[in-house]
Amino acid sequence: MTKRKKIILALVGLLLVAGIIAMLSRKGGAEQISFQTTEVGPGDIAANITATGTIEPVTTVDVGTQVSGIVTRLYVDYNSVVRRGQVIAELDRTNLMNDLTSMQARLRSAQIELDYQKKNFARYNELKQKDLVSLSEYDVALENYRKAQESVRIAQQDVARAKTNLSYATVYSPIDGVVISKSVEEGQTVASSFSTPSIVKIAKDLTDMQCIAKVDEADIGEVREGQRVTFTVDAYPDDVFSGSVKQVRQNPVTTNNVVTYEVVISAPNADLKLKPGLTASITIYTLERNGVKSVPSSALRFTPEASVFGSKYVIKDTTAEHKLWTLQGNVLTAHKVEIGATDGLRTEILNGVEEGTTVIQSFEIGTATEPGKKDAGRKGKEKDNKK
Q1: pLDDT in tens, 84-111
Q2: Domains contained in the chain, CATH given
Q3: CA distances from 60 to 57, 174, 208, 209 (A)
């Protein structure tokens, strides 16, 4: 075969390969880019944290006694409604009465001694004026008189103390409320040697409860007084109770190396469903913005790459930390925006674009196919920029 024929055959082969490639290209179709858009408009932005807590009365008082003795009468029981000043219990008065009688006898004895020393000092004082007694004898009479006066004052205080202890034998309710626990029964001896023994515990108002929530240290920085709260209890799984944050306590509680902080939440209880000690599952709404100008957060992560869009679109970028993109014809334009609150799904737009502006949220790269055939496209990956 001559050299010329070889060249001709090589050219024919190249033309054949080029034709096959062109045919396959026409069958396969060209890649196309489609955009998913969204409008800048009003939306709700909300964020919350969860915690567990315990239902408690707002005010509880442990009612005890400051004296020891046998409980002779107990006038209340669990769930008893009491009023301030109402008698709750009585203790045996025998020993207390004996103490009072003894103190009163000592007072009378001290008073008799005082009367004698007073008269004796008056005589010595008169004799001293006439220089009939020595100064030392006069001083002794004066000292005995003053001691007798002091003995009377001490005896009077002892009598007053004995009367007070006797009054403690009758236990009164210090507040209006409901008895939620009882620690003694009639006939039981209470001893106040080291601490005040508790007789009953009274809750002031069961229609106004509170929930003590244990919030993790990672979330406590977002909690503020006045934030809205909802919670549920296992006793009423279909009911959602509402309240608000009343107090964020500064005292940390460490349990198994986990640090939590107590948050006090109001829990109105007009229907008395909530009972002391119930465990609550709590949601604290740390962010609530309704109807603010915003966009889906994914729109702020969209960034056109020149390697993908450069051949078909004109990209007008801007140096900004946060930006939204619009499309007009084949021109992609970036707009510098200032953002506000975000919950991860939506982000508030403070300025930079007007409400109602259509912006690009994401894109998709697909293949143009012949009529009747499905498009085997692939989604473009969004560049996740930090806000």
Answers
A1: 999 999 999 999 999 999 999 999 999 9
A2: 29-46+293-379 (2.40.420.20), 49-58+204-289 (2.40.30.170), 61-91+169-203 (2.40.50.100), 93-168 (1.10.287)
A3: 6, 11, 12, 11
